[in-house]
Every structure is written in C-alpha cells, then in structure tokens.
C-alpha cells in the first residue's frame, strides 16, 4: 500500500514510516516541520512540507500522491501549553484535522488511522482502562483529541470514511541502533529527561510526588515502545485495507505499568550512572495509575509488543540520546 503519513517527520511518525517500509509498504510524508525533522526520514521518502491549516495544500498533496490510506499524527502535544494557549491547540489540532478530513472525503475517501491518547479518559479509577471507559479529558490537549475522534466518527457515518483510532499510553524508547528518537523542543517525558540527566545536561531528576496510593508511592504508567506503537499503525492500516476493524478504537499499551522509581532504577542500571533524585511536589493533573486495557488490539489485530522489558526499552532510548545528545541538531 501507499500511505500518506501526516506528521510523519515527528517522533512517532518517523518510527512508523520505517516500520511501514519494513513491512513492504510505500510512504509519503506531509509535515509542516514545526516540530518534526526531515533528517528523521529514510532516504527516498518524499516529504511534502505543508500545513493542515492550508486546506488547498492538503488537497493538492492527496491528489498528487494518491495514497491508499492516511495516518494522521500531526498535532501539538503538550498538556501544560494547551492550558495556556487553548486557541492554538483548538486551531491546530481540531481545525487542522477537520481540514484533513474534508480533503480526504473530497478526494479519495481512503481509510484513516488517527493518533489519539489516553488523555481522553482523564482521571479514572479503572485499572486497567478499557476502551469503553467514560471519556472526560482534563486538558485542552485531551479535549482536542476527543473532538477529533468525534469528528472522524461523524465523517464515517455521513461519508462512509473508514477509520481506526489508536489511543496511546506512555510512548518511549527509540529505534534500536539509535539513529532516530525523541527530540521534542520542550522536554517533559520521564525517560527522555532521565537519559539527558545521565548525560549531564541536567543536575538531577525530580520525582513528582512519592505519596500516591501505589506500592512505592510514585505514579504508575504504561510505557509502550515507539517501535511497537509504530507496528500497531501498520496492523491498523492493513486491517482497514482488508475491510476489517472499520470504526474501531484501540488502546495501545502493554497492559501493565511501571512506577517512576522503577523507571529511574532501570535508567540507573542501563547507564551505569546512578541519578541524583529529589522528591518534589505532585505535578498537577497526574493520576496515580494509568494502565491500558490492552487486550482488544491483541485479540482483533494480532498486536504483539516486542519490547516488554523495562531495561530493554530504556536501553534503546539511552542509545539514541547518547549518540545524539542534542537531538537532530547534532
Ligand atoms: N515524572 C517525574 N519526574 C519528571 C518527569 C515525569 O516524576 O521529571 C513523572 C510524572 O509525574 C508521571 C510520570 O513520571 O507520573 C510520567 O510522566 P511523563 O511526563 O513521562 O508522561 P505522562 O504520564 O505525563 O504522559
């Protein structure tokens, strides 16, 4: 198949492009390069530099490249920033997605796989969280993802658009070999920050709260490796191509979690440099435990995560950061 990967120059998008090629598919990337990196793309993959806020440009790209399906990653992704600049988030994530949907139904009406997030669930007591849990996003970011899920469903009902929504839990790690990986301008993710601290770029690691109702008092998250997540997208587009799983929504996670302390222990073990740790107050909006109900995608799409060992996951992130201490800048 030929896939148009929207936001394909970003962290998850670029890993997905690789896994698509490895599975024998063809990819063309559409990205505005606001946070993505052209260097993250394999040689020979065409890059259309266009913005979803330019409907004519998006339509022209679809008409020029005639993809068999579209995978949509392009979004602003920072929870804190979304609360300070809601207009930017609604415009970029919701209006941008609307323009893409409109362009798809006006051109080829090909299947769509959409990047959503566990943030659509908000705080919940459900452990693990099933896909049919109530949806109460607590940030503008989560709200923009839920609004987009709902828009896609409406286009499915009205125009027959086939789709799959994937709700990611905590994405981490890097392609083995360490040549592409996470390189966001603002760093907030635990494993990335711990690796950069181990490299001496920061003094110490803050543990945001150690008085949560969990075994060691720190928050538990479901850490899914970016390459496994990329494979989930390959499975999703292939299923839609076969006419399977149309209008389905899947969590993507391991179905079990690790605490902040367990993650930092794994980073210490992998880097061989024990990090200085300091317990800080809880970070606003962090639920104690977020773990994916992860059976549905296993049962229906045959998803088989390869990276289930925390140290192995961390090792791939460490390899990337060690080789590229300043991301794609070096
Ligand atoms: N965390 C932490 N120190 C940090 C960064 C994160 O203790 O420097 C905690 C955070 O409070 C959360 C977990 O690590 O409980 C995962 O946070 P991250 O930002 O990686 O992902 P999120 O769960 O917010 O999507």
From TrEMBL:
Species of the source: Deinococcus budaensis
Cofactor needs: NAD(+)
The protein's name in its UniProt record: UDP-glucose 4-epimerase
Family annotation (Pfam families): Epimerase
GO BP, one annotated term: galactose catabolic process via UDP-galactose, Leloir pathway
Reactions catalysed according to its record: UDP-alpha-D-glucose = UDP-alpha-D-galactose
Family in the record: Belongs to the NAD(P)-dependent epimerase/dehydratase family.
Assembly: Homodimer.
UniProt keyword annotation of Transmembrane present: no
Location of the NAD-dependent epimerase/dehydratase domain: 4-253
SUPFAM superfamilies (UniProt xref): NAD(P)-binding Rossmann-fold domains
PANTHER family in the record: UDP-ARABINOSE 4-EPIMERASE 1 (PTHR43725:SF53), UDP-GLUCOSE 4-EPIMERASE (PTHR43725)
Keywords assigned by UniProt, alphabetized: Carbohydrate metabolism, Isomerase, NAD
Gene Ontology molecular function: any one: UDP-glucose 4-epimerase activity
Pathway given in the UniProt record: Carbohydrate metabolism; galactose metabolism
Gene3D superfamilies, A to Z: NAD(P)-binding Rossmann-like Domain, UDP-galactose 4-epimerase, domain 1
UniProt EC number: 5.1.3.2
């Amino acid at each position: 198949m030929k896939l148009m990967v929207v936001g394909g120059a970003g962290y998850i998008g670029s890993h997905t492009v690789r896994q698509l090629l490895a599975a024998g598919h063809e990819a063309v990337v559409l990205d505005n390069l606001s946070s993505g990196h052209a260097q993250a793309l394999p040689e020979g993959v065409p890059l259309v530099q266009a913005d979803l806020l330019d409907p004519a440009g998006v339509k022209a790209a679809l008409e020029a490249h005639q993809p068999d399906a579209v995978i949509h990653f392009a979004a602003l992704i920072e929870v804190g920033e979304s609360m300070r600049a809601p207009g930017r988030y609604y415009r970029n994530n919701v209006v941008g997605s609307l323009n893409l949907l409109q362009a798809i139904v006006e051109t080829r009406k090909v299947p769509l796989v959409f990047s959503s997030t566990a943030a659509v669930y908000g705080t919940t007591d459900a452990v693990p969280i099933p896909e049919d849990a109530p949806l109460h996003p607590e940030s503008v970011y989560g709200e923009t993802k839920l609004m987009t899920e709902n828009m896609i469903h409406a286009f499915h009902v009205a125009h027959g658009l086939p789709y799959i929504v994937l709700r990611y839990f905590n994405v981490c790690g890097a392609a083995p070999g360490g040549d592409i990986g996470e390189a966001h301008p603002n760093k907030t993710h635990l494993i990335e920050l711990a690796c950069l601290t181990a490299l001496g770029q920061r003094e110490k690691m803050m543990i945001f709260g150690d008085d949560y109702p969990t075994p060691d008092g720190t928050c538990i998250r479901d850490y899914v490796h970016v390459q496994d997540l990329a494979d989930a997208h390959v499975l999703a587009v292939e299923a839609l191509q076969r006419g399977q799983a149309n209008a389905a929504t899947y969590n993507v996670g391991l179905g079990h979690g690790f605490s902040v302390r367990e993650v930092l222990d794994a980073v210490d073990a992998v880097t061989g440099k024990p990090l200085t740790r300091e317990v800080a107050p809880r970070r606003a909006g962090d639920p104690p435990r977020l773990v994916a109900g992860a059976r549905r995608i296993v049962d229906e799409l045959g998803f088989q995560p390869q990276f289930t060992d925390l140290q192995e996951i961390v090792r791939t992130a460490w390899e990337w950061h060690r080789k590229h201490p300043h991301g794609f800048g070096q």
